[in-house]
User: What shape does this take?
Amino acid sequence: MTDASNEQKVTIIKVPEAVGVFDTFEALQAAFYDLRSVGFHHSDISLLGSQEALEGKLGKAYWRAPDLEDDPRAPRAHFVSEEAMGELEGAIAGGFFFVGSYIAMAAMLTPVSTVAASIAAIAIGGGPAAVIGTLLARRADQKHKEYYDNQIRHGGILMWVRTRDKDHEDLAVKIMKGHSGHDVHVHPWSE
Assistant: This one.
């Protein structure tokens, strides 16, 4: 498909895909986990891309989730769970603490240093680095929450699920509806 107004070429494949809209992150996450538990691969499940990706593909026009459900130009993104965000936050904060502590420890590990001085240096060097890491981790989490909040403000969080046959179409629709997905339907293509 090609859209003459944006002059972008959009490639679609003839693999059916279920689509639905969720009003909360919790409902979306529950649907995602149930889809995964019955055999859908994570790469077959996608969400609407970020605001920046939307503007890059569709311009700065105001959009609503129902307008993009069946639009092959709508940018896609992978689902990121709360657990994954928690792991990312821990890695950022812990990594900064480790680097700060390591630098302080390396500076203090001289032949004349004492164990007490080395421990103090680790605490002094790691503390500020851990604070910086924690602030950066919170920023990453805030951006993640803003991504979902923005979609909810625009009518809901879109989810697409590629299906390989009629049984999987029915299963995906059932799961999505079972977790309060609305306007759930199947179209005969996917991006």
In short: Confidence is low (pLDDT under 50) at residues 1-6, 85-89. Residues 115-153 form the longest helix (39 residues).
